[in-house]
Design a protein that fits this description.
This protein is an alpha+beta fold and 445 residues long. The chain has 2 domains: 3-60 and 146-307, DD-peptidase/beta-lactamase superfamily (Beta-lactamase); 320-441, Lipocalin. 23% of the residues lie in helices and 27% in strands. The chain has 10 helices and 22 strands. The strands form 5 sheets. It has a 7-stranded mixed sheet with strand order 8-9-10-11-1-2-12, with helices on both faces. Helix 1 packs antiparallel against helix 10 and helix 2 packs parallel to helix 6. It is globular and about 65 Å long.
Length: 445
């Protein structure tokens, strides 16, 4: 069985895009419906590598140093009185997530006002000596973004665009917080090909088409193993951590939640970009090594491949459905997923229409209408004044219920609805959004 066949058939895996570069040339490219090559999808923590890239450039420009103390770079957010351990934190410690904390400091900010997020993170005293251990720390990545902003006068995206993205010919977007800031730990949206291209830039030591974009020596620093991660339960994450990059069984990788990857394998001259949606990400990586790499060794090539997806069956039962507010239905999510925060939907209706179904619901002060045939149909809907790209499909079940799937194509996420003849309704995410359940936020702002 080929890699594409295996991941397509596996109920625990949901691939969206796959781009393979060998020596900088695209040798394989494939997409799974409803996703397409030009979808700029949320790559979650792959954003951290972009944040670190901005740090490397700022350091090379003399804006600050890796050894500078965080409290000196963000003096307005430093604890008063000074904490002896917090005062030891440097840019290096943030980049390597070796801050000495025993838990992610991002929890300190979720209940606070955005203007105070950096202050709240720096108020969390490390539980062990600074530099002594690795704990995955989104708060550290947020502080890196704040340092870039404070010391350059530009946001991460503004800083990187003329220096890196523009010369590469790519145009990522980035989600922003309520103050309009790019989030240092997440929020970047890239196509699968652009995600692979960032990995290729690193594979080539920061040189793109013969032009050096990243400082000499930066890639070597960023990809070195700065701190052990042997405490991680999953083997793929227990191989060490660089500067906002994970060490791999070969090479290193950009790594985002639910299977957003740029795998950089320098000894093979390979970069593999993957966008997807599942929690079984180590299983996915195992299949890369077990199936995809041997296929590539055998000369696998193929461009613009597309897996259309199986249409939802329509039993013909039912003509109209109406429900109030759907409740969480775990049977609609993958068995490994927890109950997440769900969007607030109300007055859900659906009816048969030419070629499929018309589904309507109220959310965030908007009345939303989507057309949902058995096969995916891509469209743009307005939610709270934001144009949100979605793909929809639906099909009636033999029991008279209607299954509806709404994929937000600039993210990895699909919302699944089940409308029943008795007027009840259930819903669940395929994989749960990590920042917000609001549907108007399923687009880069």
């Amino acid at each position: 069985m080929s890699f594409v066949e295996a991941v397509t058939a596996d109920p625990l895996l949901e691939l969206h895009g796959l781009v393979v570069l060998r020596g900088g040339r695209t040798v394989f490219e494939n997409y799974w419906a409803p996703y397409q090559a030009d979808d700029r999808t949320l790559v979650y923590s792959c954003s951290k590598t972009l944040t670190a890239t901005a740090v490397g450039l700022a350091v090379a420009e003399g804006r600050f140093a890796l050894t500078d103390k965080v409290v000196d770079l963000l003096p307005g957010d430093a604890p008063d009185p000074a904490d002896d351990l917090v005062s030891q934190l440097t840019v290096h410690h943030l980049l390597s997530m070796s801050t000495g904390h025993d838990a992610d400091t991002i929890e300190a900010i979720v209940v606070g006002r955005p203007a105070h997020w950096a202050r709240r993170i720096l108020a969390v005293r490390p539980q062990t000596p600074v530099g002594s251990r690795h704990i995955y720390n989104n708060g550290a990545s947020f502080l890196l973004g704040e340092i870039v902003r404070a010391r350059t006068g530009e946001d991460i995206l503004e800083f990187l665009t003329p220096r890196v993205f523009g010369p590469m010919g790519i145009a990522p977007t980035w989600d922003r917080d309520p103050l309009g800031r790019c989030l240092g730990w997440t929020g970047a949206h890239l196509t699968t090909a652009w995600l692979a291209a960032v990995g290729e830039l690193y594979r080539c030591d920061g040189v793109w088409n013969g032009v050096r974009l990243l400082p000499a020596g930066w890639v070597g620093q960023a990809t070195a193993k700065h701190i052990p991660t042997s405490h991680e339960e999953r083997d793929e994450w227990a191989r060490g951590y660089g500067y906002q990059l994970w060490q791999g069984r070969e090479g290193y990788r950009l790594d985002g939640a639910f299977g957003q990857f740029s795998l950089v394998l320098p000894e093979r001259d390979l970069v593999i970009g993957i966008t997807s949606a599942q929690s079984e990400t180590e299983h996915l990586l195992n299949l890369v090594w077990e199936l995809l790499l041997p296929e590539l060794d055998d000369g696998l090539t193929g461009l613009d491949g597309h897996v259309p997806g199986t249409p939802l069956d329509d039993s013909g039962e039912g003509t109209r459905w109406a429900a109030g507010a759907p409740v969480h239905d775990p049977s609609l999510a993958a068995p490994t997923e927890d109950a997440p925060a769900l969007p607030q939907l109300a007055d859900v209706t659906a009816s048969r229409a030419a070629g499929g179904f018309t589904v309507e619901f109220s959310t965030e002060g908007s009345r939303v209408r989507v057309q949902a045939p058995a096969q995916w149909e891509r469209q743009v809907v307005a939610i709270a004044g934001v144009d949100v790209p979605v793909a929809a499909r639906a099909g009636a079940r033999p029991d008279g219920s209607l299954a509806v799937e709404l994929t937000f194509t600039e993210t990895p996420h699909t919302l699944r609805l089940r409308l029943r003849p008795d007027g009840s309704a259930g819903m669940a995410w395929s994989v749960p959004p990590l920042q917000t359940a609001e549907l108007s936020h399923k687009v880069a702002r």
